[in-house]
Amino acid sequence: MALINSLIDEVASRAHAEGDSDNAENHARLLNSIHRLQLAVEKPIETAKRIMYQPPTNIALRLAVELGLLDAIVAVGRGGPVSANLLGASTQSEEMLVGNLVRIMRCLTAMGICDEDGPRRYSPNEVTRELTSEGLKDGVKCFIRYDTVIPASAGLLRFLTTFGPRAPTNAEETPFAYAEKATLFEWMEKRPEQRRFFDHFMAARRREAPRWFEMWPVSDTLKSGLRSGPDDVLLVDIGASHGHDLMRFKERYSSFPGRLVLQDLPETIKTIHNLAEGIEAMAYDFFTPQPVTGARVYYFGTVCHDWNDDSCVEFLTVTADAMERGYSTLLIYDYVVPEVEASVRAAAMDLQMMVLFGGMERTEIQWRAILQASGLDLVRVWSLPGASEFVIEAQLL
Description:
The protein is an alpha/beta fold. It has helices spanning 2-18, 24-41, 44-52, 54-67, 69-77, 84-89, 98-111, 126-131, 134-141, 149-154, 156-163, 175-180, 184-189, 192-208, 212-215, 218-222, 244-252, 266-269, 309-322, 344-357, 364-373; strands at 82-83, 115-116, 121-123, 233-238, 259-264, 279-283, 297-301, 329-335, 376-382, 389-396.
């Protein structure tokens, strides 16, 4: 009981510290204290059952999005309560028995996704509205959670039984590839709607997270010594998709000299239509020699966690070969998992990378090892309070 009382005091203190401010560090500490308090209060059997019963609640959310239930609660109710009958009549679930719809809604209200205003009456809250945004709604639909991760994860034990108790080491031998007979990106190539869901979710995820240039001291580091010739390159964003980060960087640091280069595979480059003026799109496979040499900054944003150590060393070595000693810097934006007390999100992402890609989230020790094997030295890990990802700065050994 002493531990519980201590944690209650800690939650109260951190709630007071957060107040009405938007301080990410205070918010992260408060959430951590609340989580620890819940674990302290729960009986062991309650913790075990809560975890065991998560899949059905996730499925309820997937059904709600697919059937348009959350959109209907927001639109039809206009902030007020909506009856189950009206909800069924205004969505794709019109032919579904109202009793079944109520069973789905029961899970959603229990999770706090919407509010219950009496028997079979529901109203939206802030979580409901957030989940009706395009990015998160498509995130529920896309491979990230339900249509691929859960089936592939369910087959993980069978996969390990078949291939032995070792972690997958490449995209061709993952539980996902075992289940679907294709790598994830091969699977999405045949399902353009899933690729669209993925792209929308990734864009929304980037919007909510701090940008790498908000962590790394751009002005202090680049304020002197930048080359300004017509061929000099300031930044190469490797595996940049549609260049969301690069465009935001250009907006903030438009006065900096040097070219800005976006690199990705040819099939991705072909889909870019609204790239900001001054950014060059270049088709490039980062396992091949880097055509842009001597750039000031080479950047990988949430790329390395898709790959195993050997693959990372291969393409990071290629990048190191293009860098100029004493001038070029490598920046990697990715998770840095603590050796102890990792968050649920970081730990879950690590397993998800294993299941889907044969990749992993890495600790600082693991980052140092693959960088050193690539001819690079880890200079510093940069972060912001409450951020999930970090910026790893490296230079040539």
